[in-house]
Design a protein that fits this description.
five-stranded mixed beta sheet; globular; alpha/beta
């Protein structure tokens, strides 16, 4: 009897490490989230990854799964050798980590390493909202904003593999300071962090909402102040997407991250602004916004899908 083929998929973020066994059919088994505890430093984080891999490896053996390898998506920029060439202080000491080499030495399995948003895009392209869309730009809106360009079903990484840092294109000269060292980056305004900043800026003594979820709930209920803020926020998102449409000549966007939980309530408002500000020649047959559907599984599915033999 043939053994089930699969891989270990890992999605490493600044606060949590998502991991699972992913079957060659895209099924997710034994999904778990482990606190990153990044403040403990690089060596502690590597040790945690080794433990996670070993636990999934034991489970795969118990279930008779043939492990084809390990796929990991990590926050930060990853070069073509699988080294983390740059990471912010959300992952202290992570810059320069030869992650592929270290994990292969520890596990004895083939390892693929990529940026975490690249993994999300691959997951959605394989088993999610982008299955029938060979060309699209993925924009992940969360604490910050990450991105990825997919052409013909494969990631376009640019000269060094770093293409897609959409959150750091500048939309406000001399604007808010960013963690990257510049000012006025799009993610300062269009991320969930940007939305929180917008809410604080307009906070009244009789504050009616405390966090973005309450803001959206109030807006859905017809509250005028909440609807006005959502309108401002959706316009800021649309401005960045319009820039990308003009630069990339792209008409298909996959939106991922925490904000996509708002569904059409937010996407329709973004779309209205896009129609107004995108030049007609770039509008073509219409710019379509697709919301990611795999949720917290997207990164582990996409990372695992990059392992040789998983998509055959």
């Amino acid at each position: 009897m043939n053994r089930i083929r699969g891989a270990i998929g890992i999605d490493l973020g600044g606060t949590g490490i998502k991991s699972a066994l992913v079957g060659a059919d895209g099924s997710v088994r034994h999904f778990r989230t482990t606190p990153t505890e990044a403040s403990l430093g690089r060596d502690a984080l590597l040790a945690k990854l080794y433990d996670i891999i070993e636990e999934h490896r034991r489970t795969a053996e118990q279930e008779g799964m043939q492990l084809l390898g390990i796929g990991i998506g990590t926050a930060g920029s990853v070069d073509r050798s699988g080294t983390v060439s740059y990471a912010t202080e959300h992952l202290p000491g992570w810059t320069g980590t030869p992650l592929r080499q270290l994990l292969e030495q520890e596990s004895g399995l083939p390892v693929t390493v990529m940026n975490d948003v690249h993994a999300i895009a691959l997951g959605e392209q394989w088993k999610g909202a982008a299955q029938a869309i060979p060309d699209f730009a993925c924009v992940a809106i969360g604490t910050g904003i990450g991105g990825c360009i997919v052409k013909g079903g494969t990631i376009e990484g640019g000269d060094d593999g770093y293409a897609g840092a959409f959150g750091h294109h500048i939309v406000a000269m001399g604007g808010l300071p960013c963690t990257c060292g510049n000012r006025g980056c799009w993610e300062n305004y269009a991320s969930v962090t940007g939305l929180k900043n917008l809410m604080r800026k307009h906070e009244a003594p009789d504050s009616w909402v405390q966090d973005p979820r309450e803001l959206f709930a109030a807006a859905r209920g017809g509250d005028a102040r909440s609807l006005d803020l959502i309108g401002q926020y959706s316009e800021v998102i649309a401005i960045g997407l319009a820039n990308l449409a003009h630069i990339l000549n792209c008409r298909r966007f996959l939106l991922a991250g925490a904000i996509t939980a708002q569904g059409d309530f937010l996407l329709d408002r973004i779309g209205e602004h896009l129609r107004r500000i995108v030049m007609p020649v770039y509008w073509g047959d219409g710019i379509l916004l697709h919301a990611a559907v795999l949720g917290e599984h997207a990164g582990v599915v996409g990372a695992a899908s990059s392992v040789a033999g998983m998509r055959n």
